[in-house]
Specification:
The complex is a heterotrimer of chains A (about 290), B (about 375) and C (about 290). Chain B is α/β, with parallel strands linked by helices and about 375 residues long. Chain B has twelve helices and 14 strands. In chain B, the strands form three sheets. A seven-stranded mixed β-sheet of chain B has the order 7-6-8-9-10-13-14, sandwiched between helices. In chain B, strands 2-1-3-4-5 form a five-stranded parallel β-sheet, with helices on both faces. With about 290 residues, chain C is mainly α. The chains are: A mainly alpha (about 290), B alpha/beta (about 375), C mainly alpha (about 290).
């Protein structure tokens, strides 16, 4: 039972990440491949503030969102002039840069030593350290994120985003300053990713740079592509499957020596087959 | 679309349910087996150490079982891949503790693994005994958390004393990899060396997986040190030593215990002559042990942590002979272990779950082989 | 002064390796227009192919290199046949191709780890390779070979593209695939050959890196990223640009860490990329 709680919590965290990234990639059509950076900023904000300054978890999450949004604002200002592959490459570059900061700025992040002892949330004397309570808390955040994402998607703001995806020049003709819109959604998305980061820091009680590499960003991309771009429901289901898949494979009984690599082989083949036969993912409306 | 959605959901639910049920079903029918978990990097950069340690644990478990097991019950080791990653280790520990219902876990290797697993083990009162994690932070990680390998704080200090007083070096440059282990050892060396009146003339770092240290070495060469204290794992050391030779860095090198990997000296050949390093004063391994372990590893060299992993399981088993599977009793038992004569060392645990003695021997490399230094 | 020359030499060495990756990447990108994540793993395939032939089967070194390079080329060609061309026929978007290439990369890298284990291997025989003193700095024989191979590849490729009808076909497809097809060029076949050549270059890079430092199944991504940055700085799709960009990248990286601690090297590369993209997005040499 505890194991299922554990997996469910991870699924929720990745679902939040997926939703946040989907807004930028699925709705706006920008291939942001550095999202793990914002995930990391949220996680480190919580880890640093709760361990060194004794700040309350929820306050640290707010700080994480602010820090992440701030970084996104600066990064987004540069990114907004690009599109397509260049956008992907530059956002990846920012991921590498932020990862280097996590790894090398020892004074702030303790570098590869990581920050242990991140506490579970506590609010008004209610302690969320038990697995069930934490799961409930995480689920609340997921619900909030989902509602926020849906609100954005269905609003006129969301319609502009989709128009940018379909034909940016056309909508510019109508007088929309697409740079602002692209920046805005990027910042919002970064803030959401930070929420997931704060949750994971508090859940595993430990943060280190290795969780925020480019490969992690790519994993989040895979989740939303599998689930279907611009399908919010798809992002959640995508997280469910892609988080459970390696765990299910753990039981597949590969010979121990190569079990982990075999999982990667299966995972890679899964992606290839998916792209060949169902690129729009499960629920994508975005016909790739 | 709705149908596909339901079907998919159903499939996933089934998988998770099956996963959850299969293991516990098995457990119910086999109350005569003692389950112990083993977590370490079976993939990732440090897989060569992880695989080695796994073989050692296997060997110990085979021996325990052929001698009749613990209190007549056989032991079963369940291996999980920690990937030297805290999230993976936490996942692995979760599975071991909650599904496999292990009594204890031998692991992790990397301190990041152990630190991530510690809160889980502590909360569930499962014994966690690491044979490889040396981060000083583990000393206070919990009541159920132990390690039979000395904390990094010892090694750097010993090396600093040796370099300063025995080798009489005044000006030293530091070259360290960016991992928790490298940094821990490096920092404890630096602090002690400066305390003894030495001078650090340069300090360079490189990412653990970097294979090109030339930029860092050029800067070190420019600082003209009397010795380079080079803390790194196998791969970094191989390229580092070769590139030092290429670039003409003449200063002698001194390393940490990861250099006991013979693969380094076989690869660098002449470039390694004169290098010195510290090793936990592991006693000489008995022939029988070396042969048996070589068979398990398929002839691969024995890593310095592998005998510790072997000892870890053996210590656990010996405590469990008296304490059974009650982890409160096992815990007490481990704290009480004094002068247990293992393969690698004689162990006495202190009140924090660390081992008290941290003795090192200095090795010097000549002609591709290491020997005790004078 | 000596340090400066050494750093410059280091930069030139690094640049030469990145140039090989950039050449291959540029060539393929010019024709297919997608960000091929799998290009990196071909370097590893080349390196391991050589390792198997030379160390395990004991074949002559030159033969092993040639065969290793060819194997990498064939692997790239195979990926195209099996995966990418099918997707292109369907007019799949770049996003799909990127994810598919990610899948190929993950699978291939894991397969190499299974077959050869994750351990690091050095390819060169001699330790303490003879170092030659050049302009106050030191280079090894391997590094000189790297530079020559890189320049030779560039010249060879340039000759191929400018002097042969195959080269013309490639340039035509880079300009506009639709038109090229209408004019009668068998775009599928030409693209396949392009994949072979580009992948072979990556394989060569992998073997050379193996001699210089060593090989590991995970070596691909890092090399690829540098190659891509070099291509973009130099001007994507342009052969000479990619090589220029590669040398610039190598020099900036190595000279940069004179001032900044060495661990920031990767960040410096990307920072350079971003600076270029902000101020001169078309790269050094415009298309």
């Amino acid at each position: 039972m505890d194991y299922i709680l554990h997996l469910a919590t991870l699924v929720i965290i990745y679902a939040i990440l997926g939703l946040s990234l989907n807004l930028v990639v699925g709705y706006t059509g920008l291939l942001a491949s550095g999202h793990a950076a914002f995930y990391g900023i949220g996680a480190y904000s919580t880890a640093i503030l709760t361990t060194s300054l004794g700040v309350n978890f929820f306050a640290s999450m707010a700080a994480g969102i602010a820090a992440s949004a701030g970084a996104a604002f600066l990064i987004g200002a540069v990114l907004s002039r690009f599109d397509g592959d260049y956008y992907a490459l530059v956002s990846l570059g920012f991921n590498v840069i932020i990862y280097s900061v996590f790894l090398n700025w020892h004074g702030l992040t303790r570098g590869p030593l990581g920050i242990p002892g991140v506490p579970r949330p506590a609010l008004f004397g209610m302690d969320f350290s038990s697995g069930v309570f934490f799961l409930a808390l995480a689920a609340c955040f997921l619900a909030l994120t989902f509602l926020a994402a849906r609100f954005v998607a269905r609003s006129s703001f969301g319609r502009v985003l989709k128009s940018i995806r379909e034909d940016e020049k056309a909508i510019q003709v109508f007088g929309y300053n697409t740079v602002y819109f692209k920046l805005a959604i990027f910042v919002i998305s970064a803030g959401m990713a930070a929420v997931a980061g704060s949750l994971v820091a508090s859940y595993i009680n430990f943060v280190d740079p290795s969780s925020f590499t480019v490969m992690e960003s790519v994993f989040i991309l895979a989740i939303i592509i599998f689930g279907g771009l611009s399908s919010l429901k798809g992002s959640v289901i995508g997280a469910l499957v892609l988080v459970l898949l390696p765990e299910a494979l753990r039981f597949a009984g590969f010979p121990q020596a190569i079990a982990a690599q075999m999982r990667h082989v299966v995972y890679g083949l899964f992606l290839v087959v998916l792209m060949l036969y169902r690129p729009q993912g499960l629920f994508g409306e975005f016909k790739l | 679309m709705k149908k596909t959605f339901k079907a998919l959901f159903g499939v996933i639910a089934l998988i998770s349910l099956a996963a959850g049920c299969s293991k516990s079903g098995k457990e119910a029918g086999e109350a005569n087996i003692i389950r112990i978990g083993s977590v370490g990097p079976l993939t990732s950069d440090l897989a060569y150490i992880g695989e080695n340690m796994k073989a050692a644990v296997e060997l110990a478990s085979d021996e325990i079982n052929s001698a009749g097991g613990i209190k007549g019950k056989k032991i079963e080791i369940i291996y999980e891949d920690g990937k030297c990653d805290p999230k993976e280790a936490a996942n692995a520990a979760n599975k071991l503790i909650n599904i496999d219902k292990v009594t204890a876990i031998i692991g992790g290797l990397c301190s990041s693994e152990t630190l991530a697993m510690a809160p889980l083990a502590e909360k569930s009162k499962v014994i966690l005994l690491s044979a490889g994690s040396t981060n000083p932070g583990i000393t206070n990680a919990g009541d159920y958390i132990f390690r039979n390998v000395p904390s990094d704080s010892f090694q750097g200090v010993y090396a600093a004393k040796y370099v300063r007083t025995k080798l009489n070096k005044q000006r030293v440059a530091l070259l360290k990899c960016l991992s928790d282990w490298c940094l821990g050892v490096n920092d404890s060396f630096k602090a002690e060396f400066v305390r003894l009146g030495g001078e650090i003339v340069g300090e360079e770092a490189f990412p653990q997986d970097s294979r090109d240290l030339r930029g860092q070495l050029v800067k070190i060469k420019a600082a003209n040190p009397e010795l380079v204290y080079f803390v790194s794992y196998t791969e970094g050391t191989i390229v580092g030593l070769r590139q030092m030779r290429e670039l003409g860095v003449k200063a002698p090198v001194f390393g940490a215990d990861a250099w006991s990997d013979p693969k380094i000296w076989e690869s660098v050949k002449g470039d390694g002559d004169g290098a010195m390093y510290l090793e936990p004063a592991n006693k000489a391994y008995p022939e029988g042990f070396v042969d048996a372990l070589s068979k398990k590893t398929g002839g691969k060299e024995i890593n310095v942590y592998a005998p510790r992993a072997y000892d870890a399981l053996k210590i656990l088993a010996s405590v469990m002979e008296t304490a059974g599977t009650d982890t409160v009793l096992i815990k007490k038992g481990i704290y009480g272990v004094a002068d247990y004569k293992g393969i690698a060392d004689n162990y006495t645990f202190d009140a924090n779950g660390d081992i008290k003695n941290a003795d090192y021997s200095v090795r010097e490399v000549r002609g591709g082989k290491a020997a005790g230094a004078k | 002064m000596e340090i400066l020359s050494q750093l410059i030499l280091n930069g030139v060495m690094a640049g030469a390796l990145y140039a090989l990756m950039a050449l291959g990447f540029n060539l393929i990108y010019g024709v297919t227009r997608f960000f091929n994540l799998a290009h990196g793993v071909l370097a590893a395939i080349g390196g391991y192919a050589f390792f198997t032939l030379s160390k395990m089967l004991g074949l002559n070194i030159y033969l092993s290199v040639a065969t290793g390079v060819a194997i990498a080329g064939l692997a790239g060609y195979g990926f195209d046949r099996l995966v990418y061309s099918k997707l292109r026929k369907r007019k799949a978007s770049n996003l799909v191709l990127l994810v598919a290439s990610l899948g190929v990369f993950t699978t291939a890298q894991a397969a190499l780890s299974i077959i050869f284990t994750s351990q690091f291997q050095t390819l060169s025989e001699t330790a303490g390779q003879e170092a030659l003193s050049v302009l106050g700095g030191v280079v090894t024989r391997t590094q000189v070979i790297i530079i020559f191979s890189s320049l030779a590849s560039m010249l060879g490729l340039a000759a191929l593209l400018n002097g042969t009808s195959f080269g013309k076909a490639v340039r035509a497809i880079s300009d506009d695939e639709e038109v090229a097809r209408m004019v009668g060029i068998n775009t599928g076949r030409v693209t396949g050959y392009v994949f072979f050549i580009g992948s072979a270059l990556a394989g060569l890079a992998g073997i050379l890196v193996g001699f210089d430092t060593g090989i590991q199944p995970t070596m691909g991504m890092g090399l690829l990223l540098k190659g891509v940055i070099a291509s973009i700085i130099g001007g994507v799709g342009n052969i000479y640009g990619g090589v220029l960009g590669a040398f610039l990248l190598g020099l900036v990286e190595n000279l940069g860490i004179w001032m900044i601690p060495g661990e920031w090297k990767d960040a410096v590369s990307f920072l350079l990329l971003i600076v270029f993209l902000v101020f001169r997005p078309q790269g050094i040499i415009k298309r």
